[in-house]
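Hi there, hope your week has been kind to you so far. It would help a lot if you went through both lines with me. No rush at all, and the record is pasted right below:

***
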Amino acid sequence: MDPHISSHVHADAARRTKEGDDVFVVDVDVEAADGSPAKPAEAVRPSGGTDDDNGAVDYMARAQWLRAAVLGANDGLVSVASLMIGVSAVNENRKTMLVSGLAGLVAGACSMAIGEFVSVYTQYDIEVSQIKQEHKEKKDLLPSPTRAALASALAFAVGALVPLLAGGFVSQPLARFCAVCAATTVGLAGFGASGGYLGGASMARSGFRVLVGGWLAMAVTYGVLWMFVKVFRIHVSSSG
């Protein structure tokens, strides 16, 4: 092909690429100007390609249920552990701590499910209204309220079971307290690291952030209840 014609072809391809058109450049040169075989031109990838074409993970699609699951697991673990530790500050009875933890598990799971469903359904309605207003086709990435509610409730229950099973059946008060704290520490670090891994973030940073937040919540809960009992001189029976 004549060099001048070839330059015009490539210039036109570059112009069309800037304008957003899908361009494929196919070099049909049989030989160069000096008579030597011409090198084939590199194929130009059409615009609009995604990382999915190369097998990359679609983290945005995963975020729909991952946020609800991570939030539910951490909330269940921290809430029930804080509740059990707080109760131990005023009552060392094993049955009292077990019942309080079980009540926290059931109530928290139901609360998380309802909260996620209402919250995500509101987001869903907003996005659907925006799509209709812009006269666009319905997208596949619309949030699923049911999936978010189920993921949150199930994750909350799983997280709550960690401290409940670790300390709910230990008779000695100090050993029970230590068991709940140890199991909660491992659970917080594990859930945080898992969330970072599934979300493509740093596992160490995510685990450390969740661990510090959980320990702070437990310390505040224990301290508030301990101070409440001391200030108001409330006596809670440990019999039974």
